[in-house]
Amino acid sequence: MAEKEPKILSFLCNWCSYGAADLAGVSRMEYPSNIRVIRIPCTGRMSVKFILAAFRQGADAVWVSG
Amino acid sequence: MDESKCIACGACTEKCPKKVVDTYNAGLAKRKAIYVEYPQAVPLKYRIDPEECIYLTKGKCGTCKKKCPVDAIDYDQKPENVTLDVGSVILAPGFEPFSPAGLDNYQYASHPNVVTALEFERLLSASGPTHGHVARPSDGKDPKKIAWFQCVGSRDMNRCDNAYCSSVCCMYAIKEAVIAKEHAGDDLDCSIFFMDMRTHGKEFERFYDNAKNKSGVKFIRSRVHTITPLQDTGDLELRYVTEDGALKTDVFDMVVLSVGMQIPAELVSLSNKLGINLTPGNFCDTGTFTPVETSRPGIFVSGAFQGPKDIPQAVVDSSAASAAAAELLSGVRNTRTKEKELVPEMNVLGDRPKIGVFICQCGINIAGVVNVPKVVEYAASLPYVEFATDKLFACSQDAQDSMVDLIAEKGLNRIVMAACTPKTHEPLFQETLTNAGLNKYLFEMTNIRNQNSWVHKNNPELATEKAKDLVRMAIAKVAMQEPLKETELDVNQTALVIGGGIAGMASASSLAKQGYTTHLVEKGSRLGGQANNLFHTAKGESIPEKLAEMVKDIESNDRIKLHLNTELSNVDGFVGNFVSTLSSNGNEETLDHGIAVVATGASPYTPSEYSYGSDDRIITSLDLDKKLMAGDPALKKLNGALFIQCVGSREPERMYCSRVCCTHSIENAIELKEINPDMNVYVLYRDIRTYGEKELLYKKARQLGVIFIRFSIDNKPVVKTENGKLTVTVTDHVLQLPMELEVDLVTLATAIIPNTDEKLANFFKVAINQDGFFIEKHAKLGPSEFPTDGVYLCGMAHYPKPIDESIAHAKAAAARAVTLLARQKIFSSGTIAQVDQANCAACGVCVSICPYSAPSYAEKGRFAGKAEVNPALCKGCGLCVASCRSGAIHLKGFDTDQILTQIFEMDEAV
Amino acid sequence: MTKDMIGSVMVVGGGIAGMQSALDLADAGYYVYLVEKGPSIGGVMAQLDKTFPTNDCAM
Question: What is the CATH number of domain B96-262?
Fold first, then answer.
């Protein structure tokens, strides 16, 4: 586990989780940097296509939050 | 602190040597002398506490000035007096929580495990000192048993002078107990010690019932006399007497004091200075029919200063106060506001993308972690990037000006900003684009501060790599961005109000006074609704007199078109452009209107309980009002009169409190006692709910000798007529014995039931709750409007309420409606869904799935029958886009290709 | 009479009540001075954890 950091792609809802991720910064929390965030207008926008595309692109995990 | 310079980076706080008690966390934590109250504070600007700052008190230190990267700290700032000319003033100064420090028997001042409810609120909060983990202040131990004491600083003339009920403490105590159990698990024992449980708000009774029966919160009807700390353990021993007279002792880990609301002394002196009358409880004195007017013309009041109240009621009052001010000032509207000048927009459609990339250093906030020059260099190497640079503070005025110049100079037609977060700064940068004549949607902002440099500060290399990735993803996305149009729609300036009761009339009157032609539709033959059946208000005003004034005011107002005996038979259209059909005696007419206010009221419940209908001495509250209005001489001759509360309310099939009946019965009990002081007057009740200063009426009734007897729902009173004798049998909880009372009149305080109108709900696409009342946009923050744009809600169609609250609600609905009408034109957002109709299979999934009813089937044209999206209604959530099986719907600004390209560009990540 | 009136309003207090009044008036075409004695707006509601009956986060 320690050798390979998983690559995580996250889709965050603009109105809640994206703001929460901002607050984590304001509160100076720390977390590993191997996560990339795509902001979406609502988790309603989420499509299976995006998740499959992410895995095909080599993501080890996809996180949808909203 | 120079607020215009502070960038809220927090460098000052980090190094400030002085620790201070954190009032935001109710004293449970420490903060620094230079601070921001909480991370989400608005404005997010740091402030120096002048009483605590070492430099300001002792002249030494100056650490924060040295650390501040933007030179925002100015120790020489002095308080200034500013004189403002205004047309009206709204007072919303709030309340202070009662301080229990003076109550020795509760040990608050001396024992850390006795906390106030506000302190407990901070212990529950994820942003609080324990991050939401409920820990006992004395030793950090997880409490196993917590007790709440109600009415601390309320309904108490012995240990404080607050005779009124604070209205909110019962509900917040239940909420705290339920949430504490959610956090700590079901083993946590939560007990609430109370006198009367007052859950009279919308959905509150059900919450109370669930707390008791599902969450297992214990409710003990007793006022605890003393708390004795058990030595060294931190535990607290409570001694109390139960209702049946038994003395009990129990040990708890923590005690929460449900402190009431109180008007601070400085507010009392401010009111005296302003010449504003106060009530006995020091709240602002208002009339039932003028609920937000102070005694001084032009000064209005809202929130807890008007009377102890919860959030939704405060929000209602506040909108009502703005309506009252706007009615006064409607002639000078828009005279003090300024219109913005617009720069003509360049047409870049079809041009090859020429992307400008700006990387913000944010002082050291980003540049201290991320290697910004490297990111700039990398960005410049990417496709379509015309120009890349960094900025010390991209949001500063000079940086904005230089961006406008660079857009022109380099011919940029797409912009990427890598900086803090779009949540706060996207609108600002978009405005810069607009000022440069570039469509504001040709912009993408990526987050390299809040979600990068701040959270990876110990990993600068990885943070730099992440910044590069994020910039690359943003560039790929913006390259596919097109200029978007915001559809402009006219807002019809006519209003429609449905329902001619107190709420409908007050709403129509406010809209008309603010200058709008208003159609008032009433299905009955007269105005006034249920108020026609009422005698007087809790404050003693005559309802028939005031109602007549209101009706006259409506009938004489040229801007109000009254439609009696009329109902709505159809509604088409949407916000700003409704077309309704009004039906009256078989005649139909159509009406174009921009907004609608639903004020369809509620009705009295006709009881089947308590032998109602079998004897004309068994009547309802409204029947008694009729007798009182008629001055019925028989009332004087009564030897005994009895009221039974909660008839049809707070029952399994109607799990809500009708809110007005306790006060109504008590008013009438007092009236009867005043007609004949020798009359025996009884009130049989479950909980007396005279919230706010209505509590004073309850006190007065007891002083006049009205006898209050409590019964429980599983042992209700029995009303009998035998040989002409009317008797009521009730089990007294103190004596534990059935008592038989012989009386001449039994008044049933019947429930208020909704006029559930599903047709209307369908017309406006709004929802009805399980009790049959309309569901507002938001229980706390949107009490006077619906989720459907342009449709507003007030009065008892929302929930049972007394006249003052109905009028405030009506004015609030009008105020909210005017915020839309005043715009005259509305613009849709650019980021909305659009149907490629050639590919649409007309399956209807989008039509059924959209929460805002934006998609519909086109009626005309080449694509009749295919889906189309109304830009005025679309909120851009993308639900329809994701559910469209044909891929025929596109969400502009977040189109499938744009999201996919970001996914593809992530490839080089990590 | 109308001519002497001023199309601006002062709202005293930046809690939930003051903020709502200020927003409504500004959106209706009046210039608003929102006066708050503390360094940020939000009042007591900002200190609350959750709000009943929906248990929404108060913040």
Answer: 3.50.50.60
